[in-house]
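Ticket opened by: R.M.
Priority: normal
Category: complex prediction / small molecule

The reporter submitted a protein together with 2-acetamido-2-deoxy-beta-D-glucopyranose and asked that the result be attached to this ticket for the collaborator who will pick it up next week. Submitted input follows.
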Amino acid sequence: MAWTRRVAVALVALLAQDASAQTGNARGSDFLRFGCSQLVVERTDPIVNPGLRFSPHLHQIVGGSSFNVTMDPQTIDPPKTSKCTSCKMSEDFSNYWTASIYFQSPENGTFRRVPQMANGRQNGTLLEQEGGLTIYYMRPFSGTNKKTTVFKPGFRMIAGDPNLRAKASGPLVNCHRCLAKADRIMGGSGAPCDRSDTAEFPSKPCPGGIRVTVIFPSCWDGKNVDSPDHRSHVAYAPGNQALAGDKCPASHPVRIPQVMYEIMYDTSEFANPAYYKNGKQPLVYSFGDTTGYGAHGDYLFGWEDGALQRAMDALGTNCWSETCPALKLQSGEKLISCTKEQQAKEDVGTNTWLKELPGSPMIK
Ligand SMILES: *[C@@H]1O[C@H](CO)[C@@H](O)[C@H](O)[C@H]1NC(C)=O
Ligand SMILES: *[C@@H]1O[C@H](CO)[C@@H](O)[C@H](O)[C@H]1NC(C)=O
Ligand SMILES: *[C@@H]1O[C@H](CO)[C@@H](O)[C@H](O)[C@H]1NC(C)=O
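Result attached by the on-call engineer:
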């Protein structure tokens, strides 16, 4: 979404409108929204493949510099062990990551990593370099109960499933929006995963880029900071949209802030209509998915003690989006300077054409 209060208010209104049609209750969502620039792009994954240097597929990672191959939930302390964070909110040393997207040349079969670009590129606001992610922490509510309980140290979760190659049942939790040239800078408007978005990769060229949304669950079992599949300790609230559900099921009774990512991929170089003939499209996720249904995101909590709860409790008063006196902000220049060397060193095809995707995942 574009970074304007007007759009944000429209989103809240839209959610309220959708929901009130179903429930008769006014409901909406207050949120923090801020940019985090790229920390590193590499094949590591401390949630799914702890200890493995060269995890099976490539990730683009933002957040605290303590990001590492192993991040044991019992012992990690990101605010203490990070030297810096690539996020605008300087008390946030969490890590956020997603898969990368590649363009596979229909002419010769080689791969090039699709560049990421900043969302709402306005100096002094979301200043991001070579992409990064836009992060949301939302507080869904209905009526007057707005209480959310923030994550415990060590907490982690995954949204989406890299093994999916067909549309999952239920509300969309990951989606792609094909942007027109005019939406290139501000990222398009309208609610995430609405009718303009698709679970699969767009079937037509996107000269303004592709905006990918990843929506995390808003309910927690109240006990576990992780689970074997990194999903079952959290749940989406029942309903026909993943966003802004606030009525948590009995199995997962604790309402947590709803985390959402927006990632902007710059597909302008790859928008030749000739690549989109006969039902084909040229993009593939770094884990070999040519459908797009396997899009997913990983979250690892790492805020300084008390900061996120303070912000969530202040939302709706003078705290909103990237303006929140309850939190400390750092300059765009400072967050961009927070980067990490690859620990899993390899050419990821940012400026070169690769014969194979990093890790050579099966392409299907
Ligand atoms: C990453 O983990 C290794 C091994 O445990 C450790 O030596 C190193 O200091 C860690 N790096 C960071 C940035 O925490
Ligand atoms: C492969 O095709 C792309 C365009 O689709 C081109 O830019 C690139 O140079 C080609 N690489 C080789 C080795 O021919
Ligand atoms: C943003 O800042 C950079 C570096 O100071 C400058 O070159 C660029 O023109 C600015 N862009 C806008 C839109 O103000």
